Amino acid sequence: MPPIIEISGLRKTYSRAFRQPHHALDGLDLEVAEGQVHGFLGPNGSGKTTTLRALLGLIRVDGGTMRIFGQTVPRQRPQVVGRIGAVVESPQFFKHHSGRLTLQLLAESAGVPKARVEEVLEQVGLRDAAKGAVRGYSLGMRQRLAVAQALLKQPRLLILDEPANGLDPAGIHHMRELLQWLAHSQGVTVVVSSHLLSEVQQLCDAMTIVSRGRRIVDGKVADIIAGHSGTSLSVRFPDAASLPEAVEALTTADATVTAAVDRERLVVQGAPEAAWVTRTLADAGIYLSELTTETKNLEMVFLELTGTAPVPGETVQIGGSVVPPAAAPVGAPAPVAVEAGSGEAEGAER
Ligand SMILES: Nc1ncnc2c1ncn2[C@@H]1O[C@H](COP(=O)(O)OP(=O)(O)OP(=O)(O)O)[C@@H](O)[C@H]1O
């Protein structure tokens, strides 16, 4: 079955006064299969929103191709727009209207039966708050209203930019259940962008990790974690002067082992077992004072893949993540529901 979304080599460059042009998208690829919750994960400024805005026709790109439901967009957007619901960017609801009236007016203009309004209010958990004016809504409530708006037309593809934004833990849990139900029981394909790793891990079936406008890795969430996880060993010595000798001893004994000095300790990866490290060092006349095993979680995998792992004494700058290793590739304020394909509306230069 062809992917619901296929993006290949997408490019978007912003010119900046007195600075080099900025490649927000630098040949980005993305494939999203039908009926899954697909996480679009990346550090701040990695190009997630730019990609979603391009898909929805809100900005023009400089290169690459995009297909939704097999149709090339933006050219064939009219053929697919009715099947897409999206929540990207800031809310623009009439503050004096109630949540229910907001949805009723939108339903009317879209030719959707009024009964559908009650269904979506129930689905997003706003039934009891529906008669209150939107001006009294919290960030999380506006977020829910935006999602309700996106669901009105019973879309087959739902695109949400940071859906957990503004939601409290109960709201996040509720949103997760709703999105998984839509995907797994209703066959809706759901794409969510996020920088919340734990949320992606719990919510998504598959994910694409991006950094600096490029895809770093994609696949099933569990496979990505399994494929990049592993254990590393942290080794300390009575005297830090032993560190360079220890690196030499370990990497000479086995060329596939990596040993990196991290302040006063050595981080060893690829060793057959902990005992091998102890033995190899002892054979070289080096004695250690501590050896601990560290298992990687998704956060460590993400930091490693996107090159945003903290460096002692340095603060990683936005958009300044390092170029990821060559071996890796495998394959807001509260948002508002955006009418997909509502035209080319280039955002203001930041
Ligand atoms: N209209 C614009 N003018 C200039 N630069 C822009 C514009 N929109 C985005 N950018 C830049 O493009 C890069 C990608 O931005 P984008 O909003 O797509 O990132 P993101 O992955 O969604 O980040 P976040 O997680 O912080 O929302 C950033 O460096 C951003 O500053």
Automatic annotation (TrEMBL):
<dbReference type="GO" id="GO:0016887">
    <property type="term" value="F:ATP hydrolysis activity"/>
</dbReference>
<dbReference type="GO" id="GO:0005524">
    <property type="term" value="F:ATP binding"/>
</dbReference>
<dbReference type="InterPro" id="IPR017871">
    <property type="entry name" value="ABC_transporter-like_CS"/>
</dbReference>
<feature type="domain" description="ABC transporter">
    <location>
        <begin position="5"/>
        <end position="237"/>
    </location>
</feature>
<keyword id="KW-0067">ATP-binding</keyword>
<dbReference type="InterPro" id="IPR027417">
    <property type="entry name" value="P-loop_NTPase"/>
</dbReference>
<protein>
    <submittedName>
        <fullName>ABC transporter ATP-binding protein</fullName>
    </submittedName>
</protein>
<dbReference type="InterPro" id="IPR003593">
    <property type="entry name" value="AAA+_ATPase"/>
</dbReference>
<dbReference type="InterPro" id="IPR003439">
    <property type="entry name" value="ABC_transporter-like_ATP-bd"/>
</dbReference>
<keyword id="KW-0813">Transport</keyword>
<dbReference type="Pfam" id="PF00005">
    <property type="entry name" value="ABC_tran"/>
</dbReference>
<comment type="similarity">
    <text>Belongs to the ABC transporter superfamily.</text>
</comment>
<keyword id="KW-0547">Nucleotide-binding</keyword>
